[in-house]
Task: inverse folding
């Protein structure tokens, strides 16, 4: 058993979630409120190391009323600074890392009240993360990127729903929504996508698409 997983992101029309310089503020205020409402509806939010470093998000619920989810960081080398905003005391925080992590950094985080899981090897299996969260009572998870982390979950069929906001910009370069080894043809992915809903944003310039994911096996 694992939690239900939403993947949410805002992209440019060329499918980028960030520019080459790391700029990623794409959402209008309505979209930010939608994101925070989704955060408030889940038990945990997951991000990857680069997103934590570049965006330094709090991952709390601020633009709507609601409770903060558990914050989860996946960082195999524990390269993030320990001063990140997601390590403040406003919500419980878990870090999944590996034996590549510097022991002094692990201690620093534990001293701040962060729960650190150290996995043997150099890779954090996303299925293991979901399993640990499930045993703690987490039933709904929001995956908030970035591209590499989205790939690690999606390519293993560990995403149930994608909530995608298309914004009226083009970067022409940068990080794509799903960034990994990739598939050669439309037949090669281990899942299929089914369009579930289309919504024009209140701003009139953004479109919110919802896709349900079906695993092929
Ligand atoms: N527009 C949006 O909605 C949105 C949302 C989120 C993020 N973003 C943007 O996305 C960009 C970052 O995306 P990204 O693809 O570069 O990075 P990312 O997915 O945030 O982080 C990737 C890093 O996390 C670690 N990691 C991820 N999964 C792992 C695993 N299973 N095991 C071990 N380590 C793992 C890896 O570290 P190691 O390489 O050390 O193993 C990897 O380098 C940022 O610029 C951010 O602003 C945009």
Result:
């Amino acid at each position: 058993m694992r939690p239900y997983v939403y993947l949410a992101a805002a992209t440019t029309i060329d499918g980028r979630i960030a520019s080459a310089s790391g700029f990623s503020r794409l959402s209008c205020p309505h979209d930010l409120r939608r994101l925070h409402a989704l955060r408030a509806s889940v038990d945990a939010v997951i991000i990857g190391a680069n997103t934590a470093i570049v965006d330094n998000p709090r991952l709390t619920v601020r633009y709507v009323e609601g409770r903060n989810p558990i914050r989860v960081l996946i960082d195999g080398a524990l390269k993030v600074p320990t001063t990140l905003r997601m390590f403040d005391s406003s919500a419980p925080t878990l870090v999944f890392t590996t034996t590549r992590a510097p022991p002094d950094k692990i201690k620093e985080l534990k001293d701040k009240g962060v729960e650190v899981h150290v996995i043997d090897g150099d890779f954090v299996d996303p299925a293991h993360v979901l399993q640990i969260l499930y045993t703690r009572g987490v039933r709904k998870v929001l995956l908030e990127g970035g591209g590499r982390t989205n790939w690690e979950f999606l390519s293993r069929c560990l995403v149930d729903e994608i909530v995608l906001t298309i914004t009226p910009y083009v970067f022409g370069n940068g990080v794509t929504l799903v960034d990994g080894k990739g598939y050669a043809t439309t037949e090669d992915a281990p899942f299929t996508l089914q369009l579930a809903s289309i919504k024009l944003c209140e701003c009139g310039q953004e479109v919110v698409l919802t896709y349900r994911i079906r695993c092929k096996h």
